[in-house]
Design a protein that fits this description.
- The structure is a single chain.
- About 15% of the residues are buried.
- The two termini are about 25 Å apart.
- The chain has one domain.
- The mean pLDDT is about 85.
- By secondary structure, it is an all-alpha fold.
- GO terms for molecular function: transmembrane transporter activity.
Length: about 170
C-alpha cells in the first residue's frame, strides 16, 4: 500500500481543519462575548452573526468528514435483520437514496446562494454577503458526495479482499 505524503494528508483533512478553526473561533468569541457583556458591560453587537456563521460552517463542513470516516448516523440494526444477500441490495438502495438527497441539496443550495448573490443581501451588523456564509452548503454537499463515493469504493475493495481471502482458505 502506498504511503500518503503529509501534504496529501493535510489536504484530505482540510474539512476537519476548517471546522476545527471555526469551533475554536466560536468558543473564544463566545467566551469573550460573555466577559464583555457581563463584566465590562460593553457587549459585542456583532457576536451573534459570527456565532451563526461558525456554527453553520462547523456543521456542514464536518459532515463531509463524517462521510469520509464512516461516522455518519446510520441505522444498521434494520439492515442486519435481513439475510446477507438482501443486505447488499438494501445497502445499494441506501447509497442511491443518499446520492439523490445530497444531489437535491446541492442543486437547491446552489440556487439559494445564487439568489443571495443576485439580491446582494448581507448581514445587518457586519454587512458580510450571505452568499459567503451559506456558500458552505454547496461546498459541504459536494464534499459529502466525494467522501461518500470514496468510502463506498473502500468498502467494495474490502469486501472483494475478504472474498478473495475466503476463496484462498477454501482451496
Amino acid at each position: 500500500m502506498k504511503k500518503k505524503s503529509k501534504a496529501l494528508i493535510l489536504l484530505g483533512n482540510m474539512d476537519i481543519i476548517i471546522a476545527g478553526i471555526a469551533l475554536g473561533a466560536l468558543i473564544i468569541l463566545t467566551f469573550m462575548g460573555v466577559i464583555m457583556r457581563y463584566v465590562m458591560k460593553m457587549p459585542f453587537t456583532w457576536l451573534e452573526e459570527v456565532q451563526l456563521w461558525c456554527m453553520l460552517w462547523i456543521v456542514y463542513i464536518s459532515a463531509g468528514a463524517a462521510f469520509r470516516t464512516n461516522n455518519h448516523v446510520a441505522i444498521e440494526v434494520l439492515v442486519e435483520m435481513f439475510p446477507e444477500k438482501i443486505q447488499k441490495v438494501i445497502e445499494i438502495l441506501i447509497a442511491l437514496v443518499v446520492y439523490v438527497v445530497l444531489g437535491y441539496l446541492f442543486i437547491q443550495s446552489i440556487g439559494f446562494v445564487q439568489l443571495f448573490i443576485r439580491n446582494g443581501r448581507s448581514t445587518n451588523m457586519l454587512e458580510v454577503p450571505y452568499s459567503l456564509i451559506y456558500g458552505a452548503i454547496p461546498i459541504a454537499t459536494a464534499l459529502m458526495m466525494i467522501n461518500y463515493t470514496i468510502s463506498l469504493i473502500d468498502q467494495m475493495k474490502s469486501i472483494n479482499n475478504k472474498e478473495i481471502e475466503q476463496e484462498d482458505t477454501n482451496e
